[in-house]
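Section 4.2 – Deliverable D4.2 (structural model, holo form)

The reporting period included a commitment to supply a predicted holo structure for the target in complex with nicotinamide-adenine-dinucleotide. Inputs used:
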Amino acid sequence: MAKTVTDLDAFKENQNITVIDASKKLKVAIVGTGWIAGRHMEQYTKMPDVEIVAAADLIPGKAEKFMSDWGYPDVPCYPSCHDMLENVKDLDAVSICTYNTQHAPCAIDALEHGVNVMLEKPFTVTLEEAIEVMKAEKKSGKVLSIGFQPRFNPNMQMIKKIVQSGELGKIYYIQTGGGRRRGIPTPFGTSFIDKETGGIGAMGDIGCYSLDMVLNAIGYPKPLTVTGYISDHFGKDENYWTAENKPKEYAKVFGVDDFAAGFIRLEGDIMLDFRIAWAMHLDTSGDTIIMGTKGSLRIPSTECWNGSIGGPMTIYHDIAGSSVGVATKVPMLDNTREGEFFHKIRSFLDAVKNGGSAPVPSSQIIINQAIIDGIVKSSKAGKEIKIEIPEI
Ligand SMILES: NC(=O)c1ccc[n+]([C@@H]2O[C@H](COP(=O)([O-])OP(=O)(O)OC[C@H]3O[C@@H](n4cnc5c(N)ncnc54)[C@H](O)[C@@H]3O)[C@@H](O)[C@H]2O)c1
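Output (structure tokens):
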């Protein structure tokens, strides 16, 4: 027996018309002018209340070319985040779009200069860095939002609604993650695979999304312990790169995880089983499943996991005491990546303007980061470890 549910509210929420008050302009700067910075510019340049006032990149000439390509040849550009913060006065907000290892230093610097921060995901590389960023955030009183645009996908919001409605009963087990058969990202060089710049690999690139999808749905409970495993069998193999028509030297540069797995005990007696792969000999490492005492939810994986959902979700539950063939399909709601990015940036700007709280707050994402960090540390130690997140 299959029944269909639709959720008009979730649909309407995604289609909401945002009225933007353009009488107060926000001065915004971009730090790190690679691919993702372009996605931020796509949104900022649409906002009538945003003035792009500066950019910075460590690579000489890169920020200048980026701004010129976007039609802002006269915007001052700086050779580093720090230089920019020291020289540009009255900045309201900055988008930090650097590679992972520069997230923490740039975010701390910006907060210490009294600037609101839109920080790309992953939050940081280590838990210790995330704690330092949060201390700076607290001291500054500024808005810090982390760049998880799938939060604004109504299908992702539906997962949370289903869990929070109690439809599944008490949640006790979750499996999440995903992966790609071949997909170590090097479209613009080695910043994702070099330890110096990426710091972490598949976990920080795509794993943090699957963790956010389920942890946000269940209200981000504290993680208690983790047994983790990371490996680099594909990235370290010269044959992988030659087969991908990339320089075989990438194998020597490769210094991060291309696969990670973790078994995490969460507060509230919930087990989280997680795995993520940039490359593997497998089509998919499995759907996401959320198991509860009254029902379970299956969220189809995608071939190339990037924070999206592979198709309609299914709720398995009993009706009139019978489980035979009972499954409820949850139809996909309209969504676009463009819409996700719009709401990611707009909700941040609204929080800055109205003194609201961060749309994707560090207080949640530190838990995501603690799990990733715990997987690295447990893998190194070869045993289960405790996760401890201090009060900040
Ligand atoms: N939200 C998303 O959908 C999404 C998609 C892709 C990437 N990302 C994230 O965005 C970040 C950047 O990704 P990318 O593909 O644009 O990387 P990239 O390596 O192409 O660009 C990063 C740029 O930052 C610059 N940079 C580093 N440190 C700097 C500093 N201190 N001051 C000034 N410039 C600095 C580098 O020189 C480089 O040009 C990564 O953390 C990645 O995880 C998010």
